[in-house]
Amino acid sequence: MLAKTKTPSYVLTLRLKTEMYQEHKLSKRFEIARNIYNACLGELLKRYSTLKQSRRYRVVCKIEKGRVRNTMFSDLNKEFGLVEYSLHEFVKPMQHIFRKNIDSFTSQKIATRAFKAFEKIMYKQGKKVHFKRYGELDSVEGKSNSTGIRYKDNSIIWNGVVLRTITNKNDVYAHLALKDKIKFVRIKREWVKNKYVYYAQLVLKGVPPKQYNSEGIKDKNVIQKKVGIDIGTSTVAVCSESGVILTELAPNVVKLDRRIKNTQRALDRSKRATNPLKYKEDGTININNKDKWVFSKRYMKKKAQLKELQRLNRAKRKQDHETLSNDILSLGDIVFVETMSFKGLQKRAKETTVNDKGKFNKKKRFGRTISNKAPSMLLNIIERKLKYSGKSLNKINTHLVKASQYNHLTDTYEKKKLHNRWNDFGFCKIQRDLYSAFLLMNCKENLEEIDRKLCEQKFEQFRLMHDLEIKRLRLKEKTPISMGV
User: How many CB atoms lie within 10 A of CB 483?
Assistant: First the structure.
């Protein structure tokens, strides 16, 4: 495998102006790409199954973990064709058949994509791979801007198809970004209002323009300030020397949540009405019935509506996170955050417990909330933006710091129940999440303990900013219950 480039890169997305015949060609090519992807996955699974049946594989599995064992596994992978370049050879005959639609570099990139998905199984990071169903593959990309899918003269050129890009004359950011070298081009489609809309994503070398106007770039002053972030499943608290923020994550997503639920219920009712024999008396699906599913025209219309609502949800979530990340980074660029396992919070509780009234407690946890609010996505966006200036998130050891339990005034730790949202210090009350963010901001460089002296110096200033933020939140009509405001 070739070494991956270590130079920074960013993406510029431009909408494509497409005619009907071009959309038909693109749709055909996306479907060919999907079939190639599935064929690659199927071939990899066959080879992996053959590998596991071999005697040498079982012998190597019993060897103690180390460099020798890894080398032997690597040799076995090469022998059984479980390497990326071997898959490129497998794709060649298929690409030759579809050469009028799919070029060789694009087919190799599809094979690489399939191999990366399969790698998770090989390295025990996943349990199974998912084959792409009809219409599920929504992007194809090339390997460089010299052959295959390429950008030239405000157009995307791909195997005889020329697609004009839509660039506003007043879009200074886009014109400045296009001065950078293009690494490769990706064509992406999105389902918008009952039709596919096509976009070109140009992967550019370097970092995006920070601040721009009609005259050109004007760099912002570098802010060397500490910022503490206490992120939850639905809210986030931020603290710095110049300001504090306590806000709900992705507030615009909640407005569409009810409409999505109602549409999903309508789809389920329609499917059950048109397929009564596919269900048992208890309402579960009858796996013994092999008849084809029947869907009404109204069902298909509702399904398209659901797809559009989910697209809007994704767009609003990303937009909210991008805006919030800019607000956070405007406070400082030395960011401290606790290490959290959001996947663990999504899982159902394993143990069955009983409450005081003798009833079983629900095993559901924060799956739906995390799905809607995507707290991990916000941290990824912040980290991406920090990398443009050569920095990264400072991840604090949660088990050692215990920010939610620490009291810097008494230098003690005290466990609190989840419903207790306030810390009572006698002379003042501080919101729990904001106080945790304040403590994280004053963490030492080793990321394993809080600097108590620094907390004492900055606490009075923090208290004044805290009171102003709480006053602002109380003037709002509605705030999440988890804030306790």
Answer: 20
Write out pLDDT tens, residues 163-190. Answer: 999 999 888 889 999 999 999 999 999 9
Distance between CA 413 and CA 450 in Å, rounded? 12
Beta-bridge partners for 335: 227
The CA-CA-CA angle for residues 320, 256, 349, to 5°, reads: 85
DSSP code at position 351: S
Indicate the length of the chain as a whole number.
485
Tally of CA atoms within 13 A in the half-sphere of 483 that contains its CB: 18
Q: What is each CA distance from 479 to 116, 233, 239, 470, in whole angstroms?
A: 42, 15, 19, 11
Predicted pLDDT of residue 400: 86
Question: With contact defined as beta carbons under 8 Å apart, do 182 and 176 qualify?
Answer: no
Question: What pLDDT score was predicted for residue 1?
Answer: 43
Inter-helix orientation angle 104-122/84-97, to 10°:
140
Domain parsing of the chain, residue ranges: 9-205, 226-254+302-483
pLDDT in tens, 314-337: 999 999 999 999 999 999 889 999
> Measuring CA to CA, which residue among 257, 260, 271, 278 is closest to residue 300?
271
Residue 325, token pair as written in the block: 């990340």
Q: Give the burial string for 306-320 (b: 16+ CB within 10 Å, else e).
A: bbebeebbeebbeeb
d(CA 151, CA 143): 12
Which two three-digit tokens encode residue 449? 């303990």
- pLDDT tier at 364, thresholds 50, 70, 90: low
Tell me the H-state helices in 54-126: 55-62, 67-79, 84-97, 104-122
- Cα separation, 180 vs 176, whole angstroms: 8
The mean pLDDT of 332-357, rounded to a whole number, is: 79
> Quick one: which of 6, 70, 25 has its CA closest to 390?
6
Q: Residue written as tokens 């070029």? A: 103
| Cβ atoms < 10 Å from Cβ of 172 | 16
User: pLDDT tens, 223-259?
Assistant: 678 999 999 888 999 999 989 999 999 888 878 888 9
DSSP state of 430: E
CA distance 292 to 271: 12
